[in-house]
Amino acid sequence: MWKFLFRLSVVRIHGTMIKNFFLRSKERTSLSGISPDASGRREGGRNIFNTFIPTHLIVTISAWLGRLVMVVAGIIMVRMLTTALGVEQYGAFAVLAGLQGWFLLLDFGIGSSLQNHISERRSRGESVDAFLIVTLVSGVFISVLFSVGLFFSSPYIAPLLLKSFSSLEAAEKVRCFTTNGILFVIVTVGSISSRIWYAEQRGYLSSIVPAVASVCSLGLVYLVMLLQPADRLFWSVLASGVPSAALLLISFVVQTVSGNTVSASELRGVLQPLFFRAFKFWGFALLSAFVLQIDYIIMSQFLAAKEIVSYNITGKVFFIAFFLYSAFLSALWPLCTEAAARMEWGLLMKNLRNILIAGFTIMTIASVVFYWSMPSIVKVLAPSETLIIPPSFILLMGAYFLVRVWADAYSMVLQSMSYLRPFWLLTPFQAIISCALQLFLVPRIGLSGIVIGLLGSFLLTVCWGLPFALRRRMNSQHVAESH
Q1: CA-CA distance, 461 to 430, in Å (whole number)?
Q2: Is 7 helix (H, G, I), strand (E, B) or coil?
Q3: What are the φ/ψ torsions at residue 294 (nearest 5 degrees)?
Q4: What is the tally of helices (H) and strands (E) in the chain?
Q5: Residue 212 β-bridge partners
Q6: Under 8 Å between Cβ of 200 and 29
Q7: CA-to-CA distance for 270 and 464, rounded, in angstroms?
Q8: Residue 217 near residue 244 (C-beta atoms within 8 A)
Q9: Cα–Cα distance between 346 and 332 in angstroms, integer?
Q10: Quick check: helix, strand or coil at residue 40?
């Protein structure tokens, strides 16, 4: 594969329509007031609105607007799917959708590593073309390899994962799982483009593309409802996933295809730093998946479809507010990376304080609103079903997301510094605690066992460990700088 990569690097793209399309997309970076100089650096200045509003605020505001579109589309889609599919088939749809976090591991940390390398080189005025070419070839290889692998593994995995949904035939389970998996593989590779946009402080594009995809998905799901095919679950999976996969794949290619000549020696020079850091991120992400992504797998083995749907609806409602916080978090990531690279610890801590204040404010208000309005929300989202979500479960979810605000803020700052050792030390214990508590509690107390397991894993590990690691890291860097 790398021999092909080296040959590819010495070939310039000549005057074809494809080249012109890609180069025009690169030139659109001037929309954010960032233009490449001779070294490949993009200098910051005026943003897309031709004002001096800080770029991270533009990114955050656009992310909030994009999230608003996605939330409205998602809420309408939940209502349509619960009505069209019924509780059991929508429960299967929710389990399949809950697998996205596992498939996101298939970028093997390349996205996070690439984002940090671009931010660091951007602060030094260095070119990133070699990193982009390596990422492009890696993305193609990952897409083909794992899409083929799904065809052979799905007949064994799908029946086990969806065993609780007896109304679905075995063949339908396999077909839905395979289709869902391939779409998620493409989304995973395509999502690397969002990392590039954030590193270039053009994160507003990372909000526009998913917003457009969500509207397109809503239209396709509505079309499925009108046509009412016999295998509505399969077509619902396809309709909800194709727009995101297509748009993100196009964005990935546009972002990574370069018209600049890169030598083989330059490519060899970026392989080790890109993949060494990527695998560190991936290892952390893999461990995190056992903390955050194990819930639907456990529920599919122990809980009824109606309970899974209740969990899915409650989670979607709380994620409406958490998306607003995560947008602010993502927008400040590259700023924290650049501040850490310049050892501006005061600016780094200021960003952290702003993140925490915003997160706690958003989630506290949201928790109060959802506590009082959840019965009405459930009636809107699932009008044809009788779902009762206990107030105690809503309070648990609110407490969980407040803890996530604290942990995710410190996690982002440490990852922006590419300092992952604390995660390697803490996350294995967190994963063991999370899995053990959920497996023990869910068969005994139901849905609350999922949230209690998650809460316990955070409080016993990263909630105190990450702040301690950050303080220790900054102190060591300050001592090294003074010498």
Answers
A1: 6
A2: helix
A3: -85, -10
A4: 18, 2
A5: none
A6: yes
A7: 35
A8: yes
A9: 15
A10: coil
Q: Measured between alpha carbons, how far is 410 from 381 in angstroms, rounded to an integer?
A: 34
From 429, 442, 378, 341, select the one nearest 117 (Cα to Cα): 341
Tokens of 163: 């065993």
Contact 150, 211 (CB under 8 A): no
Q: What is the pLDDT of residue 37?
A: 38
Which pLDDT score, from 0 to 100, does residue 256 have?
82
Cα gap 473→456, rounded to integer Å: 26
Report the pLDDT value the prediction gives residue 53, as an integer from 0 to 100.
58
232 near 175, Cβ under 8 Å?
no
**What is the reported pLDDT for 230?**
83
Apex 411 CA angle, 439 and 110, nearest 5 = 90
pLDDT of residue 134: 85
What are the start-end ranges of the E strands in 395-443?
Answer: none
DSSP letter at 200 equals: T
Q: Is 388 left (phi over 0), alpha (psi -120 to 50) or beta?
A: beta
The residue ranges of every structural domain in the chain are 54-476
Cα(251)–Cα(135) distance, rounded to whole angstroms? Answer: 13
Q: Which of 109, 70, 91, 117 is nearest to 306 (CA)?
A: 91
User: What count of other Cβ atoms lies within 10 Å of the Cβ of residue 124?
Assistant: 10
Looking from the CA of 309 toward its CB, the CA atoms found within 13 Å total 28
Cα distance between residue 446 and residue 242, in whole Å? 34
* pLDDT-flagged residues of the chain (< 50): 1-50, 483
d(CA 138, CA 116) in angstroms, rounded, equals 17
Using alpha carbons, select from 311, 324, 254, 246 the residue that is nearest to residue 70.
Answer: 324
408-437: burial string, b at 16+ Cβ within 10 Å, e else = bbbbbbbbbbbbbebbeebbeebbebbbeb
C-alpha span between 241 and 248 (Å, rounded): 11
CA distances from 288 to 195, 336, 434 (A): 19, 22, 10
Greatest CA separation for the chain:
72
